[in-house]
């Protein structure tokens, strides 16, 4: 059995504009709000599988369509075409070091909007792959109380300085650090142990900054690992999840649900 998948059936589409950007968003569910930022190449069936799992777990989920074609399945050509477009996007700044990314202003506005019309103590933001670090940068917004960063891959890890880069500007990181001290903010990070796209050095940078407020789940993808992950395993919460029987990625997904409930309903 492969990774859980789903479709756009039952999702309400609407445009959301903020900070000079305008994207379609897809919303579904009831309960505390969670913004799910899709991974490359976009809102795939696997991303929808995760989103529907969160809806079924009692959350209102909003997915902004930042790139790609919503509902389209993954393929090598589709991924490469998406990467080519976002690499030159001033909105995303894929290679910039210690940089503010304009898309995170948009995501903060989206999170604040969702927080204003859903129950709970703020909202969660979950980013994956290219957008993993966006979730943490979005936590500059005070209503974001549960940032989840899965395999954060920006800036692309070309060179040592980019591998250690936290994926945001120093001012943004300092604001997030201050929130861990004054607001009790906690951050959940996930990666595979051998994943060069989401380098261990980036997590070490964040550990030094965030301390005990940074909970890390690192799944074993070394040779001979119990779940049979390849050395190239990357997407913790989508393509690598197996539920029959459940593997460690499914357990990580369970922990994400628990983290969101703890942070948004207490």
TrEMBL record:
Q: Which UniProt keywords apply?
A: Hydrolase
Q: Name one Pfam family in it.
A: DLH
Q: Which GO terms describe its molecular function?
A: hydrolase activity
Which parts of the sequence belong to the Dienelactone hydrolase domain?
A: 31-261
- Has the keyword Metal-binding been applied to this entry? no
Q: Could you confirm whether the keyword Transferase appears in this record?
A: no
InterPro entries xref list: AB_hydrolase_fold (IPR029058), Dienelactn_hydro (IPR002925), Dienelactone_hydrolase-like (IPR051049)
PANTHER family given in the database record: ALPHA_BETA-HYDROLASES SUPERFAMILY PROTEIN (PTHR46623:SF6), CARBOXYMETHYLENEBUTENOLIDASE-RELATED (PTHR46623)
The name under which this protein is listed is Dienelactone hydrolase family protein
Which species does this protein come from?
Answer: Microbacterium rhizosphaerae
């Amino acid at each position: 059995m492969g990774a859980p998948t789903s479709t756009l059936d039952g999702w309400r589409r609407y445009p959301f504009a903020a900070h000079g950007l305008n994207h379609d968003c897809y919303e579904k569910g009831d309960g505390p709000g969670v913004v799910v930022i899709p991974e490359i190449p976009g809102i795939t069936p696997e991303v929808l599988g995760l989103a529907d799992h969160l809806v079924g777990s009692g959350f209102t989920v909003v997915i902004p369509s930042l790139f790609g074609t919503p509902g389209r399945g993954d393929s090598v050509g589709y991924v490469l075409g998406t990467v080519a477009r976002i690499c030159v996007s001033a909105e995303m700044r894929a290679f910039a070091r210690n940089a503010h990314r304009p898309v995170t202003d948009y995501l903060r506005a989206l999170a604040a909007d969702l927080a204003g019309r859903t129950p709970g103590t703020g909202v969660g933001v979950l980013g994956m792959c290219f957008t993993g670090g966006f979730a943490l940068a979005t936590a500059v917004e005070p209503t974001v109380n549960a940032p989840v960063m899965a395999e954060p891959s920006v800036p692309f890890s070309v060179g040592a300085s980019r591998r250690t880069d936290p994926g945001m500007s120093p001012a943004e990181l300092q604001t997030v650090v201050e929130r861990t001290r004054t607001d009790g903010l906690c951050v959940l990070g996930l990666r595979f142990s051998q994943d060069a796209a989401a380098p261990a050095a980036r997590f070490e940078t964040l550990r030094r900054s965030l301390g005990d407020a940074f909970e890390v789940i690192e799944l074993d993808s070394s040779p001979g690992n119990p779940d049979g992950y390849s050395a190239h395993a990357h997407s913790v919460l989508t393509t690598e999840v197996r539920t029959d029987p459940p593997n460690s990625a499914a357990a990580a997904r369970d922990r994400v649900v628990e983290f969101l409930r703890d942070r948004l309903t207490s």
